[in-house]
Design brief:
Number of helices: 6
Number of domains: 2
Structural class: alpha+beta
Order of helices and strands: EEEHEHHEHEHH
Largest sheet: 6 strands, antiparallel
Shape: flat
Helix content: 25-40%
Distance between the termini: 50 Å
Number of strands: 6
């Protein structure tokens, strides 16, 4: 007798269980907060400023009593919308001299993009929470076995209490280096992971974050129903 097999979805292969309250809740009973930071051009600093920044960064590393992960992400930029803005500005301006300058700038940008890739770099610091401590961390597997089912809501509440002082400490230490950091919100986390797992689609379509963003039904009939004429004497 044939047994019904459940169709495995993409979600089953992801480590993320849910994203709520500015945290990503993991299936292993842990959670992570993600901080996004700005960049500092180290080469433009004076020698004294470079030494001060290195000393402050060393102090940050020595002050850590918990693990963190530093991620540098390079993403190819799509500047088609920017080129459309230049074309619109050129079409609406009444200053011929300004129109010529916009045209030259547009040509410069197109030549630059044709020869080089325009990349956008983002810098992130991941602060994890482990339900069972660091000793419970296991290496990832292609076919993980579900040894337990974590309570998402308990994990979320414990992670909030555990991560709050860690995030404040890291932000304080980064501020000494001259780097500003902000914790990604729930919406920003959804957009980040949507972009990570759908890089090609995300260039043209952003993630819908609320039901208000859906202006049409998700499923529409391919053909409209046909109204048949009623026979004579049939009730209308």
């Amino acid at each position: 007798m044939a047994t019904n097999k459940r169709v495995v979805s993409t979600q089953d292969h992801l480590d993320i269980d849910d994203i709520r309250d500015d945290l990503a809740v993991l299936k292993n009973g842990g959670a992570v907060a993600i901080l996004q930071t700005n960049a500092v051009n180290f080469d433009l600093l004076s020698e004294a400023e470079q030494d001060a920044m290195i000393f402050a960064y060393a102090s940050l590393l020595n002050s850590l009593t918990f693990p963190i992960q530093i991620i540098i992400r390079s993403k190819r930029m799509d500047i088609s919308n920017y080129l459309k803005l230049l074309e619109a500005a050129k079409a609406t301006t009444r200053n011929e001299r300004l129109a010529e300058q916009i045209e030259l700038y547009d040509k410069f940008i197109r030549d630059l993009v044709s020869k080089n890739q325009v990349l956008d770099k983002r810098f992130y610091i991941v602060v994890p929470y482990f339900a069972g401590g660091i000793s419970q961390i296991k290496p990832p597997s292609l076919f993980p076995k579900k040894s337990f089912v974590a309570n998402k809501w308990q994990t979320l509440e414990k992670a909030k209490v555990n991560l709050a002082p860690k995030i404040a400490h890291i932000m304080k230490q980064l501020n000494r280096i001259g780097i500003k950091a902000k914790q990604l919100t729930t919406e920003e986390l959804v957009e980040l992971f949507y972009d990570l797992y759908n890089p090609e689609v995300a260039r043209e379509q952003r993630a819908a974050l609320s039901t208000q963003e859906y202006t049409t039904p998700i499923v529409e009939p391919a053909l409209q129903p046909t109204v048949l004429p009623k026979a004579n004497g049939e009730a209308q």
